[in-house]
Every structure is written in structure tokens, then in C-alpha cells.
Amino acid sequence: MSILQASCHCGAVRFEVEEPEWVMDCNCSRCRLYGGLWAYYAQRDVKFASKPDTSIYMWGDRMLEFHTCRTCGCATHSTEVGTEDAERIAVNARLIRGLHPKRTRVVQKNNGNDGVFWTHTESPVLPSHDE
């Protein structure tokens, strides 16, 4: 796997990660509106250039912190609530430079409960966490 660079639009939030084998397209209202396409890593495997200057938004069961850049507003990553060193972090794969859509498998998760996705994949759609 190769190490790839990633950043928000303005470059205030920068990180590097290994190329993911797959990314998740969640169709919940939040991910759909912010254009999230999520790659999951162990927290220690995401190398931020500096402490990210982000705003945090929580909704629903308030278990996840959704981070957006304070300057440009890009959705950058999400973490578990209240843990600086959470076991898992999701980064917005749309920010990763050099990630090629034809090399990366897309997994869809029906958290919007309507089965509507903008992406296309041969993989079966995963059910909502509510199902």
C-alpha cells in the first residue's frame, strides 16, 4: 500500500494515510449533504500534519463527532465522542489525493433507509444500523 496525502480545500487540515482497500458511502442525511465517502483506519494510522482546527457537529445518538474545517467547511473526518485516541477514525476519502475510484471498492450503507445512492457498486448494500 502506498501513503497518500489528503487535505481540505484550503489546506488547513492535512493528513496522510495508506491507500484504503474500500470506502463507505453512507446515505444518511448528514453524509449525503456533506458528500462524505469514508475510509476507516486505526487512529494511530492517520498522521495529521498538526492538530486539526475543526468544528465538531453531533446529532442523532450523539456517538460520533463529525469534524469540518473551521476555514473552508470541508467535512474532514469523524471520531467517537469523547476520545482523543479512539480506536477507529473515518476520514473523508474525497480529500485523499491520488485515490482512484476504479481501484477502490465502494461499500454502500443504507443509513438513510431509502436505498438511494449517488455512487455505483457491485457490492451488496449494507443495511442501516436501525434495521
Automatic annotation (TrEMBL):
Keywords recorded for this protein, A-Z: Metal-binding, Zinc
Molecular function in Gene Ontology: carbon-sulfur lyase activity; metal ion binding
Domain of life: Bacteria
Annotated ranges, domain CENP-V/GFA: 4-119
Entry's family note: Belongs to the Gfa family.
Protein name per the record: CENP-V/GFA domain-containing protein
